[in-house]
């Protein structure tokens, strides 16, 4: 039976790799039960500049062509809905895409993976505030991760419906033990090592530089602790800076930077871990933390944005302050020296995942949102 009668939706955002949360969420939605009723297509908005595309003019010509490709696709595609995923730094591009989608007569669902509200609007320069406020009048519905963003967006006077939809991920079977042990051997890890795993992009915002400052503090007290970083750089040049620190401080015996990996491999690396670490400065509701909870890991993260809504300190994890290498070290050493605490936090985190963040709980809500926008009168 042909699926040509399914309602067409264009999903706009990053395509894996990278292994980041938005890309993972998009992939989960596209391959969910929603695909029985909706025919998803993807427009990649986050691909890097091609080789040789350097300098102001070449890069802006590249951006212009991408916007033109987007407009052509929307205007010719007869889509019932454009579902645009947006993170804070990319909102000017998001606003332009929404304006083009409106010009093509399309309905828009803006899915905001907001991190730091103060950076996004109150502390923004005047021009960014201007295009932000104008952009927020373009979508028909806006999805946010938690209450602070809902209240603040409504206070700005947007005409869109603003709804909360928490990040959700699928439950999954544990990876095969043999595959996990093979990976352990490849990474030269001992079964007695206490392994701390970080998943996602690496760089300043994710607290990676702070982790490297914490490594000597941890390993001087607990030398069997190892650190695994799964993900590529967030900003150009940060990878090389991190490698320079690793070499200069002679951290090689304790750290493994793996770069981008296939998403299917992430559960294997999490299965190697005793704890999960994400000491970010700004986050929304990180999918990586949900994946760690699903895998049954004790979580160490920071008291920023929606993370305290996910992790309760000393119940399902340990919350610390951003930019605090000593706190990172203290939390890791505490878990290493107290296996019962580490196990208790891990078990509570896994239970919390199944109770609050398993994907099937949110799919009906998203189905209802899609239906409401598509059937509503245009405005």
Automatic annotation (TrEMBL):
CDD domains: GT4_PimA-like
Signal peptide: none
Glycosyl transferase family domain ranges (all copies): 181-351
Alphabetized UniProt keyword annotations: Membrane, Transferase, Transmembrane, Transmembrane helix
Domain of life: Bacteria
Gene3D superfamilies hit by this protein: Glycogen Phosphorylase B
Transmembrane annotation, as ranges: 90-110
Any Pfam family: Glycos_transf_1
GO-annotated molecular function: glycosyltransferase activity
Annotated InterPro entries: Glyco_trans_1 (IPR001296), Glycosyltransferase_grp1 (IPR050194)
PANTHER family: SULFOQUINOVOSYL TRANSFERASE SQD2 (PTHR45947)
Listed name of the protein: Glycosyltransferase
Species of origin: Desulfomonile tiedjei (strain ATCC 49306 / DSM 6799 / DCB-1)
């Amino acid at each position: 039976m042909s699926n040509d009668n399914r309602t067409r939706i264009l999903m706009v955002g990053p395509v894996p790799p990278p292994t980041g949360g938005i890309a993972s969420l998009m992939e989960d939605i596209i391959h969910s039960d929603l695909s029985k009723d909706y025919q998803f297509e993807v427009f990649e908005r986050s691909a890097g500049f091609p080789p040789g595309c350097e300098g102001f003019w070449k890069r802006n010509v590249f951006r212009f062509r991408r916007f033109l490709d987007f407009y052509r696709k929307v205007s010719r595609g007869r889509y019932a809905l454009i579902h645009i995923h947006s993170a804070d730094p990319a909102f000017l591009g998001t606003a332009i895409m929404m304006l083009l989608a409106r010009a093509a007569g399309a309905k828009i669902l803006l899915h905001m993976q907001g991190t730091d509200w103060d950076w996004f609007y109150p502390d923004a320069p005047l021009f960014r505030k201007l295009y932000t406020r104008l952009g927020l009048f373009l979508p028909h519905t806006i999805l946010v991760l938690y209450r602070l963003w809902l209240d603040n967006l409504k206070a700005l006077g947007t005409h869109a419906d603003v709804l909360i939809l928490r990040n959700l991920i699928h439950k999954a079977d544990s990876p095969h033990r043999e595959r996990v042990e093979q990976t352990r051997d490849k990474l030269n890890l001992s079964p007695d090592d206490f392994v701390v795993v970080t998943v996602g992009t690496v760089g300043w915002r994710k607290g990676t530089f702070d982790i490297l400052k914490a490594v000597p503090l941890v390993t001087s007290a607990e030398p069997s602790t190892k650190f695994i970083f799964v993900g590529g750089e967030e900003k150009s040049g940060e990878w090389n800076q991190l490698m320079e620190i690793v070499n200069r401080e002679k951290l090689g015996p304790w750290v493994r930077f793996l770069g981008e990996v296939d998403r299917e491999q992430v559960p294997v690396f999490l299965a190697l871990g005793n704890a999960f670490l994400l000491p970010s400065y700004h986050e929304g509701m990180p999918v990586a933390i949900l994946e760690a909870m699903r895998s049954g890991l004790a979580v160490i993260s920071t008291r920023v944005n929606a993370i305290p809504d996910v992790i309760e300190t000393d119940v399902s994890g340990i919350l610390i302050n951003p930019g605090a290498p000593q706190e990172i070290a203290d939390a890791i050493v505490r878990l290493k020296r107290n296996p019962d605490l580490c196990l208790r936090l891990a078990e509570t985190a896994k239970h919390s995942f199944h109770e609050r963040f398993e994907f099937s709980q949110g799919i009906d809500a998203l189905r209802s949102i899609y239906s409401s926008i598509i059937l509503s009168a245009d405005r």
